[in-house]
Structures are given as C-alpha cells and as structure tokens.
UniProtKB/TrEMBL annotation:
This is Phospholipase A2 activating protein. It comes from the Eukaryota. GO terms for cellular component: cytoplasm; nucleus. SMART domains: WD40 (SM00320). It comes from Strix occidentalis caurina (northern spotted owl). Belongs to the WD repeat PLAP family. The keyword Repeat applies. The keyword Repeat applies. It is found in: Cytoplasm. WD repeats lie at residues 153-185. Residues 292-391 form the PFU domain.
Amino acid sequence: MAGEGGAYRLRCSLVGHGQDVRGLTRGLFPQGGFVSVSRDRTARLWAPDGLNRSFTEMHCMSGHSNFVSCVCIIPPSDLYPRGLIATGGNDHNICIFTVDNPAPLYILKGHKNTGHEDCVRGLAILSEMEFLSCANDASVRRWQISGECLQVYYGHTNYIYSISVFPQCKDFVTTGEDRSLRIWKQGECVQTIRLPAQSVWCCCVLDNGDIVVGASDGIIRVFTESLERTASAEEIQAFENELSQASIDPKTGDLGDINADDLPGREHLKDPGTRDGQTRLIKDNGKIEAYQWSVSEGRWVKIGDVVGSSGATQQTSGKVLFEGKEYDYVFTVDVNESGPSYKLPYNITDDPWLTAYNFLQKNDLNPMFLDQVAKFIMDNTKGQTLSTSAQFSDPFTGAGRYVPGSSSGSSTVPAADPFTGAGRYVPGSASNAVAPVGGVDPYTGTGAYQSAAAKVENIYFPKKDAVTFDQANPMQILGKLKELNGSAAEEHKLTEDDLITLEKLLSATCNTSAETPTAQQLQTLWRAVNWPEDIVFPALDILRLSVRHPTVNENFCSEKDHVQLIILLLKFLNPKGKEANQLLALRALCNCFVSQAGQKLMMEQRDEIMTQAIEMKFGSNKNIHIALATLMLNYAVCLHKVNNIEGKAQCLSIISTVIEVVKDLEAIFRLLVALGTLISDDTNAVQLAKSLGVDSHIKKYASVSEPAKVKECCRFVLNLL
C-alpha cells in the first residue's frame, strides 16, 4: 500500500536497456511486474524476484526498426489466456507480442488506409479484443488484436500525443499539438476544449470520468461533467480570460492562410456554429481574433489573438509554417461534411497541377478531382507566380509527403501536364502551353485535349536544377550537438559562445533570420566538423544545411578552401565508417551544387568524389542509396549543361553499376532521372548507355505498379534507348 513505509526510497536499479526508456506500464504480474520500452527498439518484461527486493528481466521483445515510444497490456482472453503486449514505435508500426516469444505475433504496419503513416505516440485498451492507437499523422485508429483496423478517427489538425479511455465504455479522449483536448463518444468528436498552451502532452481519464491533462505551460488541468465538481464561476472566467489572451501564430498552419482585409467583423459571431470546435476568425479594431464554437454552451468562445497577420496579406506578413516547411499559402479543404479536413500547402513558385496531383496522392483522394483542385489553387492565389529561378518543392525531395521538420528542395517543371494528358497551365506564361497529341487520360478515363503540337516533353528530365536535402529540425540538431559537446574531450570542446555562434549560423542558413553568416560562424563550424568521427554528425548536419547559403557556399567552395572541404567530406565516405557520417557527407556534397562556386568545385573534383562515392553502393541503408543517387543526378544536371562527353561516360558507368545493386525505388527513380538527363539530346551519350547495357538493367522498372513516377520515368528513358 502506498505510504505504508513513510517516505519513498530507492528499491532497486535495473540495467537492461542501452538507451532512453520511453514508456512503462504495469500488468501481467499481480505481485507488481511491469513492461518497459526504449530507444534501443526493444520492450522488456520485468517480474519481482523471489526476495521481492528487485526485478528480473523475464523477456526481451524485438520487432521495431526504430525507437519504441509507447506500450500497453492487453488483458487475458480465451484466445490468449496470459494476455498480450502492444508497443508503438517511431517506425510507424505497432507490434503485438505474446509473453513467451521475443518476436512479434503481429506487426501492424504503417501505410495508407490501414496503419499509421507516422510515429505512434499512444496506445489504450478498449477490451481484451480491441485497442486504440494515436500518432503524429493526426489520426486515431481502432484495432482488433488480430491486426485488423476497424475504424479511423479524424479531428486533430496536428500530432496526437496521448489517448485515454473512459471507464466501462469505448469512449475516449485525446490531446495533441493543436492546443486541444478532444472528447470522443460513439466514434465522434463531441467536444473540443482549447488550452492556453501549444502542446497538450498527456491525458488521463479518472475512475469518476474526470479528465486530467498536462501541457507545455507546466499546468495540470482537470475537466469534469459533474456540476458538483465544476470550478467556481470566477475560476472558469479566469481560465477563459487566460485562453482569450493567448497568441496564435498563423505560421503553425492550423488556421490556414489569413488575409486580414477579407475577414468579417464581430457581427460574424451572431451566426451559430455548425459543429463543436469550429473555428471562426474576425477582425475587431484592427486585431484578428480566433473564436471556437461550443455546442454545450451555445456560444462562441474566444481562444486567442492571431499575431503577425493584422492588416497584411500572407505575402507581406511572411510564410506559413506547415509540417515543418514554409509556404505562401496553406488552404483548408473540406472534401465532405463527415470526413476530415485536409491541409493543402502551396508556394507561388510551385506548379499548381503538380501540387494538386501530390495532394490527391498523399490523401488517397479520387484523381478525377485534379482539374478542380488545380483550378482552386489558381483561383485562390490569383495566378501569382515567380518568373525567376527559385527554390521550391518537387517530386525528388519528397515534399509531397508528410515529413516532420522537413523543407523542400529546388526544381523546375516543364510545361506539359503528365497527369491529365492536357497542356499544363503555368500562370503568367503563354509560351509554355504545350498539349499532347491525342491519347486517353489515364486518371479520368476521358479523351485528352487535342492539339497540333508535335512533341510532348515529360516532366522528369532533362532536369535543369540541382536537388538538395533541406529537411531539418534545427532544435534537435543543436540539442544533440550540445549533448555530445558535454562528453567531448577538452581539446575538442566548444564554449558556450561557440554554441551560440553555431545556433545563429543555423538560424541564418535555415531562413529563420535575415542575418548573413559571418566569418566567425564559419570558423566555428569548421572546428566542429573536425571533431572525432563518433561525435561529429550533428556538426556535419549543420554543414549540410549551411552550404546551401550563397555566402557559406562561396566561402567553403572557393579556390582558397575547396580542397580542404572535399578532403574532409571524402574522409567520411569510408565503407567501414559510421552510416550517419556517410549519409550527411553525401547530402552535403549534393547541397554544394546549389550555387555556382559549389558546382565549379564539384566538377573539378569529380574523379575523386565519384571514385569514393561509389563505395557507398554496397551498404543496405536506403537513405544512403538515395543520397548517392541524388549526387549522380546533380552531376547529370551539370554535365547536361556543358555537354561533357567524358564526364557523361563516367557518370553513366557509375549509374549502370549502382542501379543493379540498390533496391529502394526512390533511389531508382533519381537514377532514372539522372540517366534520362545525361542522354537527352545527345546521340553519343545514348550509344554509351546502350554499350553499358543500361536498357537491360532498367526494363523491369517499366512495369512496377507503385510509385507511378518510377514506371513513367523508366518508359521515357527506354524510349530514348
């Protein structure tokens, strides 16, 4: 019994997991056993020892390919009389274990329509046959222990961190990164309670039905249905005042794109809402205020002031941040009343047709909506575009998928629309209206538009601009750098001022500040990237991001220092080295292509770089293979511009070797684009490719079903061969 011995004292320390322990749950042993999960990708079952002093590890379970974030015990049933253990991981999967087998009984894999598409954050038991899960993909899923997904619940607009079930029923509550606690009854979100904190980390339903939540403001709040336990009118008013004074940053993307000039006034609040939790924005005395409809109270409740948008359009007030990337617009699209709302991010440098296609693919929506979505984008952006070459999303960087903390690469897209069979509309451009000759649109099943044009260009190659690796979470990178700095040898240790200097550099090169990188910042970075190999990877990550900035690119790739940079990066392309260093070195080399100085350096050092880089083909890390393929693609872009037949021969030889070894389809796609870019408009390069037997190596990819871009790109290449 708690408290029977007075103050709590240490009972024992258990060594088993090699890394952070991320979750614990009791159960399976009436004497006080429990299950732990960890970043070491395992779950461990602990039972009290015979002396009841310590615990013995009874069972170590492995099945996840990334860290394990949550765990729950499924009660005994006739089918599994000893119960089951469910774990959720950062690999998007849920593993179901029996208590006597280290391998999973089932793995509920993450993919569209069934499993989660991002990190699983919470699990909760409904019965001995069913359980719930929540994840960073903003969905809740109900499962049978057999592995069948019975239902998917949508309501949150950002990560869902926690889930808890009401006693004696299947209703539940969730909390997440959208500042909300949501209450679900009979499968519907019946109430949304906003909190004056961005992250609502955890929730718990008590035996009496009250709900406890903990948030990033350090406050625990308890909500109740009971009139007897309800707070006083003064306390409720104080909570509403605190909520109304909260600042809502439109850059989180939760409110979509905001144009203050188009917002209605306070009279807009006279009309009742249509559903609980509905958000409405008004403009009052020059300020933008956000209100939420409360069904239970029948009124609009103010949930905060929207900052950074009053009196300005999105183009003058800055970008919208959505899923870690900056956009000019983030639209909210309601497909139907009973289904979820979808966020549609868009930059004015993007192709509206390609954006529409990626949006439909990502959300598994009917491709017949392609024209409708593209027109919606163009109508709501008023045809704005940029005529200059700029960085923006494209299919090579994966920007069409949800990648937390990521940013898009740079690309340009030719004018023919590959999705409908019609000429793609490019706002502000008349000369690009190229249409195909006949044919049936494979997405709508209807006849494509006809034109007298004689030639249709594919959207894949020749690629005109380098592909870069822009995904980043600066806070995590800096956190890891500081952590490793603490354990570094004295001769390598950075001072507090050094760490602040690198933080400013990262801010300047990740477009979160307008400052230009300084010589001192670059000197500090150079010291950091010369750390020992076992701790250098966060510094390499900063280099990878920084070299995209023109100032940094010019400094590190100039005549004075370029040899040092290449020697440094090639040192990490050692087949026996650490994979993290190999990956980041390859990505840094790819990012060097973003500016003229970097392109010049990469072409001058081509022999040394390619000779060392090809060694990376032998590993099994798909991300390394993608980076290697991207390096070849960026070389292909440069070689196509200068028509260097010797360089093309070298690049074609490496591609023909690598494409036989790698298996990842994204890497294959980038190699195909590189191949198509190299041989476009060059009969000599075509003959070289044929002599290397490239056509026989790639034919099998002409019939893959998914992703479609691999099949389409392969067929375009084969047409040239």
